[in-house]
Amino acid sequence: MLFTDVIRTKRDGGELSDEHIHLFVDGLADESIPAEQVSSLAMAIFLNSMTFEETAKLTIAMSKSGTVIDWSDAGLDGPVVDKHSTGGVGDKVSFLLAPIAAACGCYVPMISGRGLGHTGGTTDKAESIPGYNTAPDFETFRHVVKTAGCAVIGQTSDLAPADRRLYSIRDVTGTVESIQLITASILSKKIAAGLDALVMDVKVGSGAFMPTDEQTLELAKTIIATAAKAGLKTSAILTDMNEVLGTTAGNALEIEESMAYLRNDRRDTRLDEVVLALCAEMLVITGLESSVDEATLRCDEAVSSGRAAEAFGKMCAGLGGPADFVDNSGKYLARAPVIRPVHTAGYLSNVDVRAVGNAIIELGGGRRKVGESLDMSVGFSDVAPLGTLLDAERPLAVIHAASQDDAVQVEKLLLNACQTADSAPSLNPVIHRKLSGQG
Ligand code: URA
Fold this sequence. Notes:
Elements: H1 3-11, H2 18-29, H3 35-48, H4 52-63, E1 81-85, H5 93-103, E2 108-112, H6 122-126, H7 138-148, E3 150-154, H8 161-171, H9 179-192, E4 197-204, H10 213-229, E5 233-240, H11 251-262, H12 269-285, H13 292-304, H14 307-318, H15 325-332, E6 338-342, E7 346-351, H16 353-363, E8 379-381, E9 389-390, E10 397-401, H17 404-417, E11 418-421, E12 431-436
Parallel strand pairs: 1-4, 2-3, 4-5
Antiparallel strand pairs: 5-12, 6-10, 7-9, 7-11, 8-10
Helix pairs in contact: 1-3, 2-4, 2-8, 4-9, 4-10, 5-12, 5-14, 7-14, 8-9, 9-10, 11-15, 12-13, 16-17
The structure holds uracil.
């Protein structure tokens, strides 16, 4: 069969057969299908959607496109569990949640993604740590998971290689925002990682991929149902992405905020709520705790006692990063030469978070084309939460840029992305709702 037949079937609104799906997945994995044909099919799927059956078949086929990890002979004395986010801006949850869950008795083999569209990628952020290897060999990955309790790495060429290629092509072809493609992308990696259970962080709001709350809910339900079909127990928490999560956005800046959290120096309230809610759900879904309240206390204690910081330190050193990184992160992270506070006046009432994410790409902190290298130092710090009274003292955010020209240009983008009001706005709860399913 010619691959153009597959493209035509979906272009004309038809249903992909098993043969079509296998041709697509095999051709993605061995790179025999050129990028223009992959992007053409991705666009046809984006426009004409896929049925639940097609989505489940694509997910399972992509999960088997490379190695599927089996942890049963690794001698682990706790559950293998992970969290994955549908993507946001300032979302540094993985760097906190993985070591917290590890300190609570979980094993977290986290295969993360690079930046996608306007959202930042955990793999890119991890690479701002000097020496930290996001593509270790399999034995190192396994060893770090076993000894540190967690390993946050990037997609390797062995795990779900079909998604790795499709992801990088979707990133630059306007085909990210498809419920079916997001589901297959996320779950193929998670199934290949050999998890016992998964907790999804599904972002809702102006910085989320799906433009409406209804579509976001449909995404969460599709992920849970598809995971159940593939035998993976999954629950989802819908969390707010109507503003940047935490006080920073940009690779090295987010890592610095994460280390400050693990050191108990600064824990942003909304970030803390999201981290603890997702992490507590990991303990509950795996049966390590029976109530969310008990699980939340256990996660909180893992941070305040320093045990989560210790787990991060072990993971970082095990993957080639500095052994003293948590305590001395400022010494290792790249810093931008230009620092520019952005001022406006009034209560911050609305943020177009997608525009904020795109502004980071303008600064060089995200990609415009496949394989582009990033400036780790750029982004925003001191990002004001919604409801903050902004004035000549309190900036909207502080821009970190490679040049004055970049800073001036991005200041305009940032001011356009934010609205202020004369009175304090009502605020969204950070945790919108929880959905659970059975694998
Ligand atoms: N995260 C992924 O891994 N894939 C997507 O398509 C979106 C978010």
